[in-house]
Every structure is written in structure tokens, then in C-alpha cells.
Amino acid sequence: MTKELSVLAIVEATAARRRARRAFMKTAATGVAAVGGLSLLAACGGDDDNMSVPFPTPTPTATSVSTDVAVLNFALNLEYLEAQFYSYAAFGTGLSASLLTGTGTQGSVVTGSGDGFPRAVNFTADPLIGQYAREIAQDEIAHVTFLRTALGSAAVAQPAIDISGTATGAFTAAARAAGVVASNGLFDPYASPTNFLLGAYIFEDIGVTAYKGASPVISSMYLEAAAGILAAEAYHAGLVRTILYTRGVTNADLITATTKISDARDLLDGTTGGTNGDDDQGIAGTNIGAANAVSNIVPTDSNGIAYSRSVQQVHNIAYLNATGANRTRGGFFPAGTNNPNPAFTVGLG
Amino acid sequence: MTQTDQIIEAFDARARRREERRGFFKNAMGMAAVTAAGAAAMSIASDAAAQTAVTEVDVLNFALNLEYLEAQFYSYAAFGTGLPANLLTGGVGTQGTVVTGTGTGSARQVQFSDRGIAAYAREIAADEVAHVTFLRAAIRGTGTSDALIAAQPQIDISGATGGAFAAAAASTTPALTGFDPYANDDSFLQAAFIFEDVGVTAYKGAAGALFNNKTYLEAAAGILAVEAYHAAIVRTALYARGIATPTIITAQNNVAATTAISNLRDSVDGTTDLDQGIAATTTNAGTTSNIVPLDANGLAFSRTPAQVLNIVYLNPRSVTAGGFFPNGINNGNSGLRSSAAN
């Protein structure tokens, strides 16, 4: 069986997920054109109750569509990145070519061979993490597919993506900036199950903050779908952080690494200190390993609420734009992200 | 260390979270006044002709009832005590107590053997208490009156004979015999599993109802995310422990228990399959876990308020009380107090 077939087999295996929502995709595919018409998301509801009050759903309006296209394409760029990383790590191959086309300039994934290049992680030593990798990879591919279907002809092409851990790769650059490796060291996220988890950690909370940050501007038509992806990303982040914490009880380096990566993200998105506060947190919590330990799996504010990031802040992290020099491209997106609205492709100056 | 000290310490661990968001309430409270008669009282679908329009306060109070339940459960499990009295009052509905039960299965501090699970319990408990506090402040708005806040209703978190957890455990297929949520790490996680994904689906289902108030919408999205993180902690821990100690597949096994509980939730909330356990699937590419319950598009599920109540009332029919809420939830909108007829 080829790798691509293996991917298909896994997707096929999720029959339970597929059953319920076939009709939805059909509706979603034509939904963008049907602006002002029926509520797309009404197709989601299992509204089989006639006795009680449903939460009201606002009527979609035509005016918000251009913002939706920009926001959903912004999300699609992030999903391309996540899906490619997890797909390589879990299956040793990237997304199929049919999932990469669209408006803007299509780019490729930086590949090659040897240490640090995208490849399947050997999960033999920790097969449980392999199971998680396959699950998350499949979810992220579903997000790419869903967003592309929802956007239809307005979907952007995959931009150039760097998920390499070589000396010049984006993962190494991120890890060096965070101090997870020395300034001349390599960070190969495909070298071991543990390295894979840290690689995943670099992405996961960003998706949560990006979707939450977008929640006030997205139209009612896509709000519930965006909330559904937000939840999925939070589940993924919770999964990755929980496993790191579990492993970290006996391997303090892992805990330290999460703190460093979170601090680096704070630096990149401009929230260290100052009025915006510290919107990123490692998993250490307090008294780790002790009987009175309190973990910090969930990065929240004092109200128990997850953080938001703006489009610019997310780009600062994805571009590894600490100094303002990489405002339009860099890091994981060497040619920048694709978006019909240029304002959705830049980081803070 | 006393229980009170432990609680304080858990909250101190969150100190830096607190510092940065003091301004939030101030901003939120500066928003357009949220009153029952205020803006954005949204119209209701025609099939609920006799019902009153659902306001944002109604939606927030609906969420508050669920947070009371979660916060009390986690607080008892982590610290052996419930919420402070000043977090339970309100002008909407009748204030109730916590039914803890007596003897085996009664609500009490779990004696964790795994320090990691104990750390998670304390973290989640602090988060849920923060949610109660946040929602109460949001509903209170600019004033000082608690008139709009739903008081904590009667809450049953007992696993003793006659308790809600015992009823839930008896209703699963196969039944979780002898289920005591507070007995050990695994039973605690299984009990937590009963709630966690429900919160995710409830907040997701409510997103549209808060659409016109972007401050509340973003806050609700933030709580949704946190509930999903919590659910992931619980599901990941259950799965990892289930794999590490692959005891025979019985109702007491973690993986099998989640399937049984998930089936219970599906059986009471209607015909649509909105729920999944953590059992893995195996293909030629290898075994794939199911920590994240999603549809074919990779999206989390939604539940209507009535479907949520089916689960917490432990009843597939249209009723106004039962299960974890023996006297029903408190809400100014009677339409939000009934479960669905399934």
C-alpha cells in the first residue's frame, strides 16, 4: 500500500464522522454563492426538538462576505501548514496535489532528505504518540478540505511552506530563537516522538488564539463552523500539552522547552509585558511532580478564558518576525501567506 | 496543608493570569447595557411560538448553570469542598444546595495516586470556578445587583445510591456497576468525561445566539476553547491510562467506559450522533486514536440547549428537572429549562 493510500485508509476509517455530515458538505459547496439565502449552518443542526427554545441564529448578510473570504483564507494558510507538518510526521508524505490549488501563487513544501527534512517520525519507541499523530493529521487534512470547499473558487493556493528542521529550516530557526537548542544547534521535529511533540507544541496554541481572535469579525454564516474548528484546535493543543506534561514529570527538559517556546511566541507577537500582558504560557504550572502540583495545560487569563491573537500577531509568529524585518514573509511561510486581502498577509512592523 | 490553603495555592498559580485581564471586566461592563429588556433580544424560530425571546442574559445564565455543576464537581474532587457561598446567589430562580450523598460514592476529595491527574484536577477546578465568577460578573453588568443572575440551582454530584452519578452509571450500556466518581484517578476521569464534551457542544451551539455582542461572543469562544482543552486532558489521560493498563474490556475499563458514557449521551439527546468515545480505529496505516470527537469536516459538534439538558437531566424526554439538576436549572426564560422530546 502506498503512503497516500494509507492516508486514505485512515480517512476512510472514520466512518462515524463521515456519516452524519455528507449533506453538509454538499450544502457548503454551494453555500458561498448563496449569500443572503438560507443559513448555511442550518444544515448542521440536528434540530429534532419541537418543545424547547433553540438558541437564535442570526440571518446571514451579504455585506460580510469579503471579510469572510479573507478570514477563511487566513485560516486556510494556517491549516495548510499544520496539515503538511502532521501529514509528513504521521505518514511521511504531504497533502495530495488536488488540495493545494487556488488563487495566489502556489508554493511547495521544502523537502529533501536526511536529518531535519520532513519525513515520517519513527514512533516505534512510543506508539501511543504515533496514534495521536495520525489522528491530528487526519483532522487537519479535514480542515483544509472543509475550508477549501466552503471557499470554493475563492480558496487560495498553498503558499510555499517550510517545515524543515535542517540548519536553515524554519523549525530550527524557531527553536534557536526560543533557546530550545543552541544558536548553532539543529531542531529536527521528525527525529523522535518527543521532538515531534515539541514541534506540534510550536503550532497548536496559535491556531486556538487565531480562531478566537477572528470570532468577532466572522459572519454568522461561518461562525459556528469556525467555532467547531476552534474547538478541534483546542482539543489538539490540550492533547499535545497533556502528553508533554505526562512525559515531563520525569523529563524536566520537556517542561522547560514549552516555557521557552511560549516565551518566544510572546516575544514574537509583542505581548511580553506591556499593556497586552503575557498571552502565552508553558505547561509547567507550579510544584511539578509534587503532591500539590497544579498543571498549566490550559493557557488562560484570570477569567479562565483562552487568549486571542490578531491576524498580525499570528503572522509575526509564523514568519518568526521578532524584529519587524520579516513583516511580509519568513519562517514557516518563506514567500508569505496567500490572501486576496493583503492586510491579512502581514505581521507587525 | 488545609483544604483552604490548597485552594488558595491553586489560585495563586493563576496569579499572572489575573493581573493582565483586570481591565477586561471594565471594558466588558462598558458595553451596551445588558438587561433583560436590552438590545439584541433575538427572535425565536417559529416552532416555539408560545415562548419568550431568548436574551443574551438568558444564554449566559444557561451557561452559568452548567458551570455551577462543573465547578462544584471539580471543586469537591480536587479540594473536598464546594464553591463559596457568595458565588451561589442570584435573583433568578430558587437557590439550591449541593447533594453530596453519604457513604460510598458521596462527593469528596479524591485520593489521587497519580500526581499528574491530581494536578489536572486542581487546574480544571480553578478554571471552572473562574468561569462561574466571570459569567456572574458579565451578567451583573455595570450595576451591583444580582437580580439578573441565575442562582445556583439544586445540584446533585453524588455517586451514592440514589445520586445522579449512580443514575448515570446505571443507565450506560453496559452499566458501570459500582461506579464511585470519587474513588480513584480513573473513576474521577470517567466522571469528568460525562461533563466535558457536553460543555464544548453547548458553547458551540450557543455561539450564534451571542453574535450581536462581540465582547460576549469572543469571551464565549474563549470558554469554548478552555472546555475543549479540558475535554482533551480528560480524554488523553483516560486513553493513555487505558492503554498503559489494558485490563480486560469491561465497563470499568477506561476506553470501554467512555464508549458506554458516549452512547448514553447519544441515547438521550436525540437521533443524531453527536458523541464519540475514545476507542481507536486500526487500519493498514496503523492505529489511530480518537481523542477529539469531530464530524467528517474536522469540526466539533453542536448541541441545542434542549439537547444539553437531556444529558444533564439524564432523560430523553421533554422534562424540566432530573439527574444532576434535581429541581431543574434556573433561567428567566422557561423555554431554556426544558429538555427535548426524543
How would you explain this protein's 3D organization?
The complex is a heterodimer of chains A (349) and B (342). Chain A is mainly α. Chain A is built from nine helices and no strands. Chain B has one domain. By secondary structure, chain B is mainly alpha-helical. In chain B, helix 7 runs parallel beside helix 9. The relative contact order of chain B is 0.14. About 15% of the residues of chain B have low confidence. Chain B starts with a helix and ends in a 30-residue tail after the last helix. Chains A and B meet through helix 1, helix 2, helix 4, helix 6 and helix 7 of A and helix 1, helix 2, helix 5, helix 7 and helix 8 of B.
Looking at this protein, list some descriptive labels.
heterodimer; A: 349 residues; mainly alpha; 9 helices; globular; disordered N terminus; B: 342 residues; two-stranded parallel sheet; two-stranded antiparallel sheet; 10 helices; 4 strands; 46% helix
User: How much helical structure, as a percent, in the residues of chain A?
Assistant: 40-55%
Distance between the termini of chain B: 48 Å
SS content category of chain A: mainly alpha
Overall shape of chain B: globular
Side-by-side strand order of the widest sheet of chain B: 1-2
Judged by helices, strands and strand pairing, the structural class of chain B is mainly alpha
Low-confidence stretches of chain B: 7-50, 246-251
Please mark out the parts of chain A with pLDDT under 50 across 5 or more consecutive residues, or reply none. Answer: 1-51, 60-65
Strand content of chain B: under 5%
Helix and strand succession of chain A?
A: HHHHHHHHH
Query: What quaternary form is this?
Result: heterodimer
Shape descriptor of chain A? globular
| β-strand number of chain B | 4
Number of strands of chain A: 0
